[in-house]
């Protein structure tokens, strides 16, 4: 009971102290960079703790890969440091919530230290899982882009072959699906906006390729930049060749996703089978 009480006091006291020192200092920062981050009610305390402990400087080697993933996933642009900070604040908020909640449950249950141990384990595992989730989101985003890219490349090839310039073709194809919430078209919409504002086409396409962070997009943009001045048949043929390769990759990803979906259904199907087996066998067992 004593250990749980001390742990509870330390955990809850830490949260309260962080909130007191944070005050309203981070209110505007959170409003501007909240994106889809969770546990925002604990964000001020977590952000103060990050600044007070110089966490970014101390863990720079670990935070840099996370920063790269956050930049790609959230299309952060100039907000990469802010979004990374919010992601780190989210993880610290989870840790604080686990420690404070677990210790509080321990006190309410007569000082059962198992709640404290469980809280500490969760506080270690959940941030690790959160970082792993970024990898899963990155892979899904990459697959989504590859699935949509061959169709986009085919349309560009058709329009260029019909006499339009590459810029006009990209703008037309992008605007057709500008209202779709898709990672490829989000990046393309940003690129089209820059083209309309008079930015260099080469610079816009290179920036688009970097923001996507997908090898297939890099090949697509490189092909366009190498051939767009020539235009006509040469560019159209190059895009069609790329499109054929991308369609094969799209088929492979679709097949893989289908297999994954089927494997996820095995467990529910087993439960249904067992339930049906019990329903059918129970009357027979009662007879005996």
TrEMBL record:
Claim: Transmembrane helix is one of the keywords in the record: yes
- What is the name of this protein? Tight adherence protein C
Membrane topology term? Multi-pass membrane protein
The record, for PANTHER family, names: INTEGRAL MEMBRANE PROTEIN-RELATED, PILUS ASSEMBLE PROTEIN
| Transmembrane annotation, as ranges | 6-24, 87-108, 114-131, 265-285
Identify the main location.
membrane
What Gene Ontology terms describe where this protein resides (cellular component)?
Answer: plasma membrane
Name the UniProt key words of this record, in alphabetical order. Cell membrane, Membrane, Transmembrane, Transmembrane helix
- Subcellular location as annotated: Cell membrane
Domain annotation Type II secretion system protein GspF: ranges: 152-283
Q: Which Pfam families match?
A: T2SSF
């Amino acid at each position: 009971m004593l250990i749980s009480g001390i742990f509870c006091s330390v955990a809850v006291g830490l949260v309260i102290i962080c909130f007191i020192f944070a005050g309203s200092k981070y209110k505007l920062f959170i409003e501007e960079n909240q994106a889809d981050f969770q546990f925002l009610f604990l964000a001020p305390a977590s952000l103060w703790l990050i600044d007070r402990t110089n966490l970014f400087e101390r863990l720079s080697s670990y935070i840099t890969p996370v920063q790269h993933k956050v930049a790609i996933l959230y299309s952060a642009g100039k907000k990469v440091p802010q979004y990374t900070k919010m992601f780190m604040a989210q993880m610290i908020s989870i840790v604080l919530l686990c420690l404070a909640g677990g210790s509080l449950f321990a006190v309410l249950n007569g000082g059962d230290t198992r709640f404290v141990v469980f809280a500490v384990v969760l506080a270690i595992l959940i941030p690790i899982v959160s970082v792993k989730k970024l990898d899963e989101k990155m892979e899904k985003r990459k697959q989504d882009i590859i699935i949509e890219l061959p169709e986009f490349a085919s349309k560009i090839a058709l329009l260029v072959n019909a006499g339009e310039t590459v810029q006009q073709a990209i703008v037309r194809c992008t605007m057709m699906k500008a209202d779709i919430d898709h990672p490829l078209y989000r990046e393309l919409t940003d690129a089209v906006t820059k083209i309309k504002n008079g930015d260099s086409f080469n610079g816009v396409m290179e920036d688009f390729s970097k923001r996507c962070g997908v090898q297939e997009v890099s090949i697509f943009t490189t092909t366009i930049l190498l051939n767009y001045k020539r235009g006509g048949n040469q560019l159209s043929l190059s895009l069609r060749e790329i499109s054929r390769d991308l369609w094969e990759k799209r088929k492979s990803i679709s097949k893989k996703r289908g297999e994954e979906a089927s494997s996820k259904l095995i467990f529910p199907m087993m439960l249904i089978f067992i339930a049906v087996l019990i329903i059918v066998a129970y009357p027979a067992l009662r007879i005996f």
